[in-house]
Write a structure and sequence with these properties.
This protein is α+β, with helices and mostly antiparallel strands and 309 residues long. The chain is built from 6 helices and 18 strands. It is 25% helix and 32% strand.
């Protein structure tokens, strides 16, 4: 199955002078089945599998037109589609190139065709995405804050996918100067800082983003899982040896259990805004490598973490 989105969503507008990012995903058609046979996509003669994916753009009259799309090459030469792996490609169009497009309505379709060059035993066939309608139009004279943020994030994503990290960071810094509480801007900047090796600054930005989310949503229906998961993965190297195995809240009583290292002491901290942390317990250690802490949930929303002392 082939599917595509424009600029990370189902939006169908592309403004002249703004970057465009088409994300194309190729998945196994039986992805949700309990058992499935992997589908291997591999081309002969050492041709990269991504060469089998093409874009077709039609204008309002149904006539084919050529858009200056640049495909970001995937690293793997072949790809086995199964429950754990999908094909993911990006087709980019620069802000300068969108200015060359004629305003109007278009449809774009991505087609995977391995019929003429599949190696023996690999998948041979065609699969295409649903035609996506795209309206190319002039950028509004006065962009709203939401539109300005979307434009900056699109531009940063475009530069990041081309590995122009400094330009991507510049685009986000301009956004955060006028919209310092942009959660998506902070999250993406943290990703770029991690890619460029500045993990401490990335963690600080993610903490800020979570704190802003809690301030703006004091009683959210669910936690900002994307931010918390990103922060958790980023923090793992500095918290090596700590693995929370159980976290429960029953009748107002909290209980955490985790595995640690012998001879190492730990502390449990809590925060209401993910910025200021208060110690709940310190000097926790164990000779068995298994530790636990019990406390009272209290009122309001709070975050908890286990840290090495």
């Amino acid at each position: 199955m082939v599917s595509a989105t424009l600029n990370g969503s189902s939006q169908s507008e592309l403004y002249l002078g703004q970057a465009g990012v088409f994300e194309v995903e190729i998945t196994h058609p039986d992805l949700w089945e309990d058992t499935l046979e992997p589908i291997r996509i591999e081309l002969a003669n050492d041709v990269h599998w991504t060469n089998a994916l093409k874009s077709i753009v039609l204008n309002a009259g149904g006539n084919p037109v050529v858009w200056p799309l640049w495909m970001r090459q995937a690293k793997n030469q072949t790809i086995p589609l199964d429950q754990n792996q999908i094909g993911q490609l990006f087709f980019l169009i620069s802000p300068q190139d969108t200015l060359t497009l004629a305003p109007g309505n278009y449809s774009i379709q991505f087609v995977l065709d391995t019929q003429t060059n599949a190696v023996a035993g690999a998948w041979s066939g065609t699969a295409d995405s649903i035609r996506k309608d795209v309206s190319v139009k002039a950028e509004p004279a006065n962009l709203s804050d939401v539109q300005l943020a979307r434009s900056a994030i699109q531009l940063a994503q475009y530069y990041a996918l081309k590995e122009y990290y400094s330009a991507a960071l510049n685009a986000l810094n301009l956004l955060l100067t006028t919209q310092p509480r942009s959660i998506e801007g902070l999250r993406m900047k943290a990703t770029l800082l991690e890619l460029t090796g500045n993990k401490d600054a990335a963690l600080t930005l993610l903490d800020d983003a979570v704190g802003i989310f809690i301030q703006d949503n004091p009683h959210p229906p669910e936690a900002p899982l994307d931010l918390l998961n990103q922060r958790s993965v980023l923090a793992l190297p500095s918290q090596s040896g700590v693995k929370i195995t159980t976290a429960s809240a029953v009748n107002g009583e909290l209980r955490f259990e985790w595995t640690g290292q012998n001879g190492v002491t730990y502390r449990v901290e809590s925060s209401a805004d993910f910025r200021t942390w208060q110690p709940e317990a310190t000097g926790l250690s164990s000779t068995t490598g298994t530790l636990s802490w019990n406390g009272i949930a209290g009122l309001g929303s709070r975050f908890f973490r286990v840290a090495v002392e």
